[in-house]
Write a structure and sequence with these properties.
Elements lengths: L5 E4 L8 H16 L5 H7 L4 H16 L3 H17 L10 H11 L3 E4 L4 H10 L8 E3 L12 H10 L6 E5 L2 H9 L3 E4 L8 H6 L2 E2 L3 H9 L2
Parallel strand pairs: 1-2, 1-4, 2-3, 4-5, 5-6
């Protein structure tokens, strides 16, 4: 294919190890509020937007903790997360610098399509020194319906000036893979907290252990 492709990354769980970082905050809150095992609820929130996460948390804990508990838990989780990881302290996934340098060297157009709001995406990429590698950023606040709806990837491809059929989407979440496939793209799954199932194996062009393995895949194209 001789570099006739583009690449759009998800951010959380792909570029940053932010899902595990966030889960550590949830564990802390689980102990403080007596929530029990928070991990199953957390996993249901992966790949969703703020409104969907709110509904999942409210439905999980309102009976035990009272109506409106999602607002309290999510606000406190956000406070803990920023306290611990702002200012470039967010852990970075293996192979990020390698793949960004590789794509830059090949002159490939690169973007980000994240369910996180755009201002925070830009802030986190800037703090990590990565923002200069990206030609465009689309955040979750640009869409009416989040992943698995393909809207965010349709917008991202349009802003990147990229044909979806010639564009890889690098994702860790089920909803992200579904969204990319529905947009007519070439999904690559790099699993994070949740591993692939049969549906993900069918929808993904390839499943790679980390971003270094994605570079190796690109080298064979």
């Amino acid at each position: 294919m001789a570099c006739s492709y583009n690449v759009i990354f998800d951010m959380d769980g792909v570029i940053f190890d932010s899902e595990r970082a966030c889960l550590s905050c949830w564990y802390e809150l689980g102990e403080r509020f007596g929530l029990g095992d928070v991990e199953p609820v957390f996993k249901r929130c992966i790949g969703t937007n703020n409104a969907q996460t709110h509904d999942i948390v409210e439905n999980a804990y309102a009976d035990k903790m009272g109506a409106g508990i999602a607002d309290k838990l999510l606000a406190e989780s956000s406070r803990l997360f920023h306290e611990k990881f702002d200012g470039g302290r967010l852990p970075i996934k293996n192979g990020v610098k390698e793949i960004l340098e590789y794509l830059k060297g090949k002159g490939i157009k690169v973007g980000v399509a994240s369910s996180t709001r755009k201002a925070l995406v830009i802030s986190e990429l800037t703090d990590a020194g990565f923002i200069g590698y990206f030609d465009m950023v689309v955040g979750g606040d640009a869409v009416k319906i989040s992943k698995p709806n393909p809207e965010i990837y349709t917008i991202a491809c349009r802003e990147l000036g990229a044909n979806p059929r010639e564009t890889f989407a690098i994702e860790d979440s089920y909803n992200g893979i579904r969204a990319a496939k529905a947009a007519g793209m070439r999904p690559i799954m790099v699993p994070d907290i949740i591993g692939p199932d049969d549906e993900m194996r069918e929808l993904s062009e390839v499943i790679c252990d980390d971003l270094s393995a994605v570079v190796q895949y690109f080298e064979k194209l």
